[in-house]
Design brief:
The chain is of the alpha+beta class. The chain has one domain: 3-Layer(aba) Sandwich (Pyruvate Kinase, Chain: A, domain 1). The chain has 3 helices and 4 strands. The strands form 2 sheets. A two-stranded parallel ribbon has the order 1-2. A two-stranded antiparallel ribbon has the order 3-4. Helix 1 links the parallel strand 1 and strand 2.
C-alpha cells in the first residue's frame, strides 16, 4: 500500500498513525491548479505503469451544497466499466479506431486521471471553504448574541447604579430637610 497524501490534514492523519507516506503534497488545498493535479497523477501513473501499484483508490470530500459535503471514495485505477441499470442494455457497436485502441488509451488515461484528480482537488477546496465560512458565520452569530447579552447586563448594572445614586441623593435631601 502506498499513500499519496494531499494536504496537511491528510499527512498529519497518516503520520500520526505511523503509515508510510509515499508522497505528500502541501499548499494546494486553498487554490488548486491543474499543475498540482498533474504532479499527483504523474506520481500515481508511474507506480501504476510499472506495476508497483495494482489499483488506485482516492478519498476526498465531495461538495454538494454550502451545508453538505460528503466523504467519497472512488476507484481511480484500473478504470471500471460503468454499471448498467436494470432493464437497460449496453450498446454493442463495433468501432474502427485510428490510431490503435492501445495508443488512444495511452493518451486518454493520463488525461482522465489528471482531470479526475483536479476535480477532487476542486471539490475538496470548495468543501473546505464552505466549512470555514459556516464556522465563521456561527462564530459571528455567537459573538453577536454574547454582545447583546453583555450589553443588557451592563445596562442593568448601570441602571441599578443610577437608581442607587438617586436614592442616596433623595435620602440625603430628606435628612437635611428633617434635621
Amino acid at each position: 500500500m502506498r499513500i499519496y497524501a494531499v494536504g496537511k490534514k491528510a499527512q498529519d492523519y497518516f503520520a500520526y498513525r505511523k503509515y508510510a507516506i509515499a508522497q505528500g503534497v502541501l499548499g494546494v488545498t486553498d487554490t488548486p491548479g491543474y499543475g498540482d493535479a498533474r504532479a499527483v497523477s504523474n506520481a500515481v501513473l508511474d507506480g501504476f505503469g510499472t506495476g508497483a501499484i495494482d489499483s488506485v483508490e482516492a478519498f476526498y470530500t465531495r461538495y454538494e451544497s454550502a451545508m453538505t459535503q460528503t466523504p467519497t471514495a472512488l476507484q481511480l485505477l484500473p478504470v471500471v466499466r460503468p454499471e448498467v441499470a436494470e432493464g437497460e442494455q449496453r450498446a454493442t457497436v463495433d468501432y474502427a479506431y485510428e490510431p490503435a485502441p492501445a495508443e488512444i488509451l495511452g493518451r486518454l488515461l493520463p488525461r482522465y486521471v489528471e482531470a479526475t484528480i483536479f476535480n477532487m482537488l476542486l471539490e475538496g477546496s470548495a468543501s473546505e471553504h464552505s466549512a470555514r465560512r459556516r464556522a465563521m458565520k456561527a462564530a459571528t452569530d455567537n459573538a453577536e448574541d454574547l454582545i447583546t447579552l453583555l450589553t443588557r447586563v451592563a445596562n442593568r448594572a448601570r441602571q441599578a447604579e443610577i437608581t442607587t445614586e438617586i436614592s442616596e441623593i433623595v435620602g440625603g435631601a430628606e435628612a437635611l430637610n428633617q434635621g
